[in-house]
């Protein structure tokens, strides 16, 4: 979770009257933790090395390796309000499947990717994980227009399990309820899809069914977009594994609609510690659930994952000036808090961000600089000896302290560390993937739940 203004207009947030307990001064009895210093690999892209002049659409997670995460996040925040959801229909059996996840260091991006097999025989491709997208799609031959990717482009003519869907098929008709803005038919009556994005990137092709392979497990008859015309600033990976709540997302096409992922630190590229799991075994028994997933009444946004956040603490003390109403969604679907795997940083509306920033600055008591998109950064010559106040998220059902390295972000090789929350103009807030590194995030769509497993139990 910048170079481009977020354009969504926002109305009022629903106000809820709650009693306020007087908070002791942040200057006393605060809880701190020591940063874990992880040297940065010279081969990895650092946030300050991106070129903000080019950027892929945040809605599709397609990102130029030279683009800043902050600009990609900015476009993604804008695009989130263009989502359209559909009622979920399960088409697969409820077997459990799991696959390793690679950090974006592989591509010089801040995203996470799964390496899976497509077709029969299976061709290995990298797809970006995206809880904000409702469709699985990838580039396909023949290409009218295709961007460069690290693996050979998928050729459906060489797959015995590939099957185009007709315009009359139920899943083709579901396209009107996904984030595709055009539904049409080819002359051969095959179903066409298209996805267009805020930076003029797009993908267009046939909606088809195909077999996907995760390790040794295969999932048949998955509806995917086979893109023959794909343009924009997308680079190196093949497409998107849509994980949203819409009917054509991958979790919605599995039997019990459960999945979870654990993302290790991007900077260490601990791919062996990052994974995604679908099926009954996906949800850990140690998961702390935030209570029910919230549903946005706006049909364009109700495929996103909204959670009930009621407060934030610094050093063990609730931040004065942050009210539960700052995170509430109103009756028109404005506001709320979204968990989004495709946004790098965490963005809060200004009502919540400014008191949090001020409380953190007071607790740190060090000279502050800025580093886009952050306004609270520090020059730490010895980060391994630095104590930082513990930041906690307080959900409706449980409280969660964050590891220091999840919110103190190493921006360059000169010891610049930034407080990993940023302000955005709209009333909604987004919890990005960096804040949740090391946690297993569990989604139970059948029971409308989202939960977090602490790093020690993940």
TrEMBL record:
Active site: 130, 340
MF terms (GO), sorted A to Z: aspartic-type endopeptidase activity
Domain Peptidase A1: 112-453
Start-end of Polar residues biased regions: 48-62
InterPro entries listed in its UniProt record: Aspartic_peptidase_A1, Aspartic_peptidase_AS, PEPTIDASE_A1, Peptidase_aspartic_dom_sf, Plant_Aspart_Prot_A1, TAXi_C, TAXi_N
UniProt region (Disordered), positions on chain: 41-68
Keywords on record: Aspartyl protease, Hydrolase, Protease, Signal
Transmembrane segments: none
One of the GO biological process terms: proteolysis
Gene3D superfamilies: Acid Proteases
Signal peptide annotation: 1-27
Family, as annotated: Belongs to the peptidase A1 family.
The name this protein goes by in its record: Peptidase A1 domain-containing protein
